[in-house]
Amino acid sequence: MELVKESIKNLKEYKTNNIEFKIKLDANEGKNILLQDIYKEGIKFNEDFNLNFYPDNDAYLLKQEIKKYLNVDTSNIIAGNGSSEMIELVIKTFVDKGEIVLSSIPTFSMYSIYSQIYSAEFIGVKSNEDFGVDIDKLIKKAKETNPKVIFICNPNNPTGNLINKNDIKKLLKNTNGLVVVDEAYMEFAEGSMVDEISNYENLIVLRTLSKALGLAGIRLGYMISNQKIINIINNVKSPYNLNSISQYIGVKALENKDKIFEYVKEVKNEREFLYKELNEMKIKAYKSYANFIFFKSDINNLYEKLVKDGILIRKFSDELEGYYRVSIGDKNENRMFIKILKEIIENEKS
Ligand SMILES: *Cc1c(COP(=O)(O)O)cnc(C)c1O
User: Fold this and answer.
1) Of all protein residues, whose CA lies closest to atom 7 belonging to ligand 1?
2) Best substitution site from 183, 210, 291 to test ligand 1's pocket, by max atoms within 8 Å of Cβ?
3) Cβ(80) – ligand 1 distance below 6 Å
4) Which of 213, 227, 302, 343 sits at 20 to 30 Å (Cα–Cα) from 234?
5) pLDDT band at 41 (very low <50, low <70, confident <90, very high)
6) Closest by alpha carbon to 68, among 199, 223, 255?
């Protein structure tokens, strides 16, 4: 008997970097700005977070903080193990075998991976030459293929491109499918769709604490949508999906809105610095609305050369061969990255 199900036969493990590094700029993780305070204060697992009990299945206290953070009602929120779980939950709930999931490409790989696992067909619509998204082209494809779900990563990973709100509204009005807007990096941009959830029947917004809040290690993401959709997804969600410790730290972190915005401002300044420096080096860098910059370089084995100096960035292959993504680090890290990049370019000449 063939034990492995057909849909996952050519699936490959999600490989993460285990290379030694001094400066880690490969995964868009933020800085440890909030945890420092939490550690200083000490973690107090009081009666609200009794670890011998199962966690709060509704993540009530966490949702209270998300409510304050984004000005949405707690009944419009589901939280879980990173936005990765939210992506899976949406596909698991709404997409049947053979149905279509649509997205602009290049984009976050998990949309197509989960589609494959659930035997759906993923269709990627190529973005423009400059990685901008032609919304009319996407709408046209949606009309042709009738997707159950359309993923919009905004700002987009890995390109840093931002789609404006009016384009997303146009897409929402022109499709019967669900439009899932993944706003993992929206703190670094403007144009969130969160305040639009009650205006559409088919809109879901995903957010995470992994990037702007610098808490990738606690695996906490959430979705926001109208109550009808939230109720349906709650029927599918695993019980106790979000552990008590992550709920506790999430609450503490979201209380620090000022600190988060201060950090976001610093990242935006540094993004401007890196963008300028890269362009001055005649490296084609794309304007980014996230906490990373996507760029193209003809230097052979640039990734390996940077690794040799202890700097880890993200490289791409196949159609994106020669393209790289570097996370915005702190002031020192960014200057070190630029310094070493300049040295590599100098060495290429000689
Ligand atoms: C990093 C990232 C996420 C976050 O995933 P988590 O599971 O919340 O850590 C989601 N979507 C995109 C596009 C990302 O780049």
Assistant:
1) 82
2) 210
3) no
4) 213
5) confident
6) 255
Is the peptide bond preceding residue 147 cis, with omega within 30 degrees of 0? no
Q: Whose CA is nearest to atom 15 of ligand 1?
A: 157
Phi, psi for residue 315 in degrees, rounded to 5: -110, 160
Cβ 79 vs Cβ 221: under 8 Å: yes
DSSP designation for 60: H
Position in ligand 1 atom list of the atom nearest CA 220: 8
The tokens for 306 are: 């940077």
Residue nearest to atom 14 of ligand 1 (CA): 184
**CA 206 to ligand 1 centroid distance, Å:** 9
Instruction: Give Cβ neighbours of residue 183 (< 8 Å, ≥ 6 apart).
Output: 154, 192, 193, 194, 205, 206, 207
Distance 51 CA to ligand 1 centre (A): 27
The predicted-structure confidence for 147-169, as pLDDT tens digits, reads as follows 999 999 999 999 999 999 999 99
Per the CB < 8 A criterion, the answer to whether 204 and 177 are in contact is: no
Partners of 102 in beta bridges: 123, 150
One-letter amino acid for residue 48 of the chain: D
Tokens of 230: 């939230």
Q: What percent of the chain is modeled with pLDDT above 70?
A: 99
User: Which residue is associated with the tokens 């491109």?
Assistant: 161
Does pTM top 0.90 for this prediction? yes
The amino acid present at 45, given as its one-letter code, is F
For ligand 1, the distance from its centroid to the CA atom of residue 182, given in whole angstroms, is 8
The pLDDT confidence band at residue 282, using thresholds 50, 70 and 90, is: confident
Instruction: Look at the alpha carbons of 63, 68, 69, 73 in this order and tell me if their dihedral is positive or negative.
Output: positive
Give dist(CA 114, CA 102) in Å, integer. 12
H or E segment at 293?
strand 292-296
CB 61 within 8 A of CB 79: no
| Nearest protein Cα to ligand 1, atom 3 | 184
The residue whose CA is least distant from atom 5 of ligand 1 is 83
What span, in angstroms and rounded, lies between the C-alpha atoms of 346 and 324?
19
